[in-house]
Predict the structure.
Amino acid sequence: MPAKPLRKLTPLGLAQVVFLDDGFLGQRIRTNRNVTLPIAYRRCKETGRIDAFRMDWKPPMPNPPHKFWDSDVAKWVEAAAYDLATHPQSERRKRLDAVVNLIASAQQSDGYLNVHYTIVEPEKRWTNVRDNHELYCAGHLMEAAVAHYRTTGSRKMLDVLGRYADHIASVFGRGEGQKRGYCGHPEIELALVKMYRATGERKYLDLAKYLVDERGQQPHFYDAEAAARGEDPRADSPQCWQSLQAHKPVREQNEVVGHAVRAMYLHSGMADVAMETGDAGLMAACRKLWDNVATRKMYITGGVGSHNTGEAMGANYELPNETAYAETCASIGLVLFARRMLEAHADAKYADVIERALYNGILSGVSLSGDKFFYSNPLAVNGCYKPEGRRHQDVRQEWFNVSCCPTNVIRLLASLGEYVYSTADNALYVHLYASGTATTELAGRTVSLKQQTDYPWDGQVALTVRVDRPGAFSLMLRIPAWCRRYKLTVNGKGFAAPVARGYARITRKWSDGDQVRLVLEMPVERVVANPAVPDNVGKVALQRGPIVYCLEQCDHAAPVPSISLPDKAKLTARRVRLLGGCVVIEGAATAVSPADWKGNLYRPYREVQTKKIRFRAVPYSLWANRRPGAMTVWLARQ
Amino acid sequence: MPAKPLRKLTPLGLAQVVFLDDGFLGQRIRTNRNVTLPIAYRRCKETGRIDAFRMDWKPPMPNPPHKFWDSDVAKWVEAAAYDLATHPQSERRKRLDAVVNLIASAQQSDGYLNVHYTIVEPEKRWTNVRDNHELYCAGHLMEAAVAHYRTTGSRKMLDVLGRYADHIASVFGRGEGQKRGYCGHPEIELALVKMYRATGERKYLDLAKYLVDERGQQPHFYDAEAAARGEDPRADSPQCWQSLQAHKPVREQNEVVGHAVRAMYLHSGMADVAMETGDAGLMAACRKLWDNVATRKMYITGGVGSHNTGEAMGANYELPNETAYAETCASIGLVLFARRMLEAHADAKYADVIERALYNGILSGVSLSGDKFFYSNPLAVNGCYKPEGRRHQDVRQEWFNVSCCPTNVIRLLASLGEYVYSTADNALYVHLYASGTATTELAGRTVSLKQQTDYPWDGQVALTVRVDRPGAFSLMLRIPAWCRRYKLTVNGKGFAAPVARGYARITRKWSDGDQVRLVLEMPVERVVANPAVPDNVGKVALQRGPIVYCLEQCDHAAPVPSISLPDKAKLTARRVRLLGGCVVIEGAATAVSPADWKGNLYRPYREVQTKKIRFRAVPYSLWANRRPGAMTVWLARQ
């Protein structure tokens, strides 16, 4: 992809990036390949999602294909295609192509392609784009088609979705007889930009731009659409619109509101459209929205979405811990948004959020074994509650009826190669540190970079530069915001690299085999939240490098909610075999003693009896891999 | 009422107890009479609830009478009748009798009396007692009938409800062709015991006993009933049963679970049946349930019900503050349960809870002006949130579609006279301290007691005993559990009264005009919660006498959630004109300073900058009478 006026970076392709299997990310990607992807296929098969594309359901058969089933299959196709880029295997390719062919066979003669609306409610096609995920499913199918095309070179699915996109463009738009609609669940916007990039067909970008620009305009399409269904305009329309980010035109929005996943997808699509069209005003709106979420509405884990009700963003600084929704999909959406902002601005602050979300609130969404999932990722669970009272499960589930999260995890993990490196002009950027190799063309030169590191457990990164012939270019190494001191050497000698927008720039003439060594100091940090966050006043969290920690009940005799951390307590980081190998943080803490209460619920304060205990904090992303029980990220300071 | 084996106390009747209009309770009762009762009538009228009893609604007219409308009208009748006991007025009596006559006119020839099921869904009568409040409405009508009879002497409504009860007894029971059902929303159990007490008809007690005993038996009636409706037994039946306290026979229940109001009403009805039948096993179950709620599941405000979802009890010790549901009705239900346990056991621990709930979590449910209401009574509101994010309203509402809470408040306040005094053998019990007078017969003697006090703002209570002739009896004065030191004098001389079960017993020969003076020391107390309550670890609440305090945003420049209270800070109580005249607590506190954050959401902890501030705490029951904003009962200790 050529650089555009509003696009500073071009990511390396998946085939250009190899993760070492035993690195931290590499392990998770391998599990994703060997366990989670097959499970996702099996669940889609067992639940009828895949076979629904055979279009042979008829009433009154049980298990009618649901409105959003198509999207789950599409996300499996997308993930499976990504994975093939570095791990081609004929069996996997066969399974993938079989599903692709099945999907293609479901396309109608006019290009339409949606199982539910073709065989369950054919008379209702395009009558409720506000609520019913029809364009959302189309978007996921397009993303799958682009992924399949990019990895396999086959245009089969891409052409099918091109025809579907053409059909959609004939139905929606500002022309006579067209619906001035847009999807209640954004997704197709970013997907159409992918279609544009894959095919070069401007019409897909135009449709994406229309969908972005039309959103939230008055008179409101969703009222007109409701009236056309014979429904009264709802008294709660404005709230409904806001939940769908359709309460005002997107350029006028400066607060991330409503359904968290929808918000993240919409803002990602906005950034895509802005980048491709050079629309600085739209990009400025994206920056405002970004600043809002990153400085007002993001959990320390990279979770977003404070409310179970409506799966919604909270107000500014509203970040309750135990009732946090922080849907896995929403953190993935945040990463999608961050990636686009990073490409547009080449500013490490976006990569910092990618790292925060990926290493914490996203990986927490899937078990180490790869076969169990969280839909929401709370920052505290008071495990003393019995099932009736439990507000959040502390046990990952095998699957969900609404299975957006597992299928989102598989496609993110399978596409991680696109997040590590990118290029710009005569520079190679390193955004994430992970053992493996990357190869790219840089100003007519073949450059390969080998990373050796135990990151995120250790801050030392050894980089070996391979070039087919010596030459000058810049190696841009991200200095994470969490890092306060680092050392950089080239071939063993200190290198004074200027740092701008979070990247240390090493500009020199590189020879084959040059060695770069970056040492990021990684002490245990106590982190506090802005006091405007009511739920974290008086509390502290533990972080080391990019990893946010938590206390789990199974490591403690005292109830986790009763533990507080003295400000002066020494904290020790230690590498252990636990949980697949990780660094834990240990030290002395204080637990309120439950003695002396005689069954009373309240009593006058004299003093609160406490006892000293040893505590152990484990990475938040690895919690709930042992026994169920209480957990907390934030501890009372003492 | 004669004393029974399991009933130790007999409350004074409403006509025997007069509150002084300018006392704390007297003021609220007067507002209830002059403002809230007329408003409740008007709302019931405006919304069609009253005129629904004309039975002239026909489809497709708008606003069909709802399944639980009858109960709102019944609760107004009950409240209006109670109020007439001390304040007879011909206009009010006319309005009351008109409504009573209207209700009576709606009775069917077979005795049935339910507006919705007579004119909206006549074919569905008694087909879903699990969900549809049919017996619940009957119960409220019975309570209204008994109140009307007791105050006015008219048997009009009592006889109508007697016929309805007879009809119900013919439909439900263990006889052939009868339904072995019971209501999903308990209420009729305690109402039938009132019918029994008012009429002396044992059959009503028998029906109450049947309903209590049948609950939760297997095979489960609610499954049979669902099957009869052609519905599949639900997979979630056990959870559903638990939410209705029908998961097991009531004698086997030892944890208060499910819908909080239903639980309180059921357990009240159980206590009633146990008292009247002398069923010690049933009373033992009541004690277990009481201990559970009072020592595991009760907010410091006397609120019960931790969950918005299902309006439900939480698990043991699950008492979240901001998301507390603590429905006004549930606290009223707790008072109903406590009153019965008090009558059964003559133990002040039950009166302590009546006082706690009444002075805090119930009075908070209605504005000082008497015309605005809270449905739920959270213990914290983080007022920095804008409406989208606000999890709890900090603004009372004029009415609700589901208007159980306002109509419950009016009947409780109008019946408060029954909660202050009771008699046993040769003893007069004083449970609550409030200016006013009481008159009763005690062992053939007319005894009158005059209370003069500024309680709850001041702990001094002056009691004047009037007797028609001198004689010996015991005056039993409750020493509240919150009180650690008190002084008692009789005619100016110290009196060493033995204290048992929370009552100081003054046994002597009384002469007309004897003066008793009780001085309850009422310092400001810091209160802590059992450390098993995760949400209150490290926190402290302020209480003075029975009054629980809170901080409101409108009294503070610093955000209320950022305020913490040093353990050593001196606390001062001061009488002010604010909020109708009350005692506020003031002192020095600490607020986290929001400076120096530069818009960041998280940062490494160095030190948290704080500033000293003055704080003012106001009675929780009086919050949200000024401007909306943040509020908290529990403060971080420092």
